Amino acid sequence: MVYVNGAGRDTSKRCLPGTREDILKKIKDWVDETGEDVKRVFWLSGTAGKGKSAIAHTIANWFDERGGPGACFCFDRTREAEQRYEKIFTTMAHDLADRDPIMRRALVSAARDNELRHTKDIARQWKKFILGPVDEASQAVDAPVLMVIDALDESGEARSREQILDMLAGNLDPFSSAPMKLPANLRVLVTSRPLDDIQKFTSSRG
User: Fold this and answer.
1) CB neighbourhood size of 138 (10 A)
2) Tell me: the pLDDT tens digits for 55-101?
3) pLDDT beyond 70 at 152
């Protein structure tokens, strides 16, 4: 499975002590909230320089320090040529597996499929490498699983994140015509600038 080095959480990007306390508390409360009606995706939008990445990395590091199964993936406009969007879920699946033995076993089982292991189809990656292992782990322990996607707007052109947006909305299942239900314990924190395609997605999510 392809893994992107240097795309994960960064301990040096934390918010300064005593700053951003309201939004950090709001996100932490959302991560720990339980129930089927809890929104799976928290969108943090704002213009450049508003501290979105610092908030994202603060949350990612907080969750890691308390021992939760989590993964963080950061896009970077200076590395668009690497087509990171094709590798986001293989990278995050690898990091989640490192944090949870049940997800590790589920990922190893899925990765035995050689063709799947090397696919660039991120919908299949999402279904088999993320949702499958998270579902399996949630059967044993009903604890939150946190995925942080920072700077989605820097993934490249709009088409590079179209599938990612659809999957977060539960609209894309390559194996069925039915909507893809996200696990109740999955939390996905996404940061981005308010680009038109992303704004359209967040508006449709209420």
Assistant:
1) 18
2) 999 999 999 999 999 999 999 988 876 778 899 999 999 999 999 99
3) yes
- DSSP H helical ranges for the chain: 21-32, 52-65, 88-99, 101-110, 114-117, 122-125, 132-140, 159-168, 196-204
Instruction: Give the Cα separation of 111 and 90 in Å (integer).
Output: 10
Residue with tokens 């994202």: 56
Give the residue from 72, 55, 54 showing the smallest Cα distance to 149: 72
Rounded Cα–Cα distance for residues 181 and 158 (Å): 24
Q: Which amino acid is at 49?
A: G
Can you tell me the distance from the alpha carbon of 195 to that of 206, in angstroms, rounded to the nearest whole number? 17
**Residue 9 Cα to chain centre, angstroms:** 12
- Between 24 and 168, residue with greater pLDDT: 24
The whole model's pTM is what? 0.91
CA angle 205, 144, 4 (to 5 degrees): 80
* CB 183, CB 145: distance < 8 Å: yes
What is the C-alpha separation between 152 and 146, in angstroms, rounded? 16
C-alpha span between 179 and 113 (Å, rounded):
25
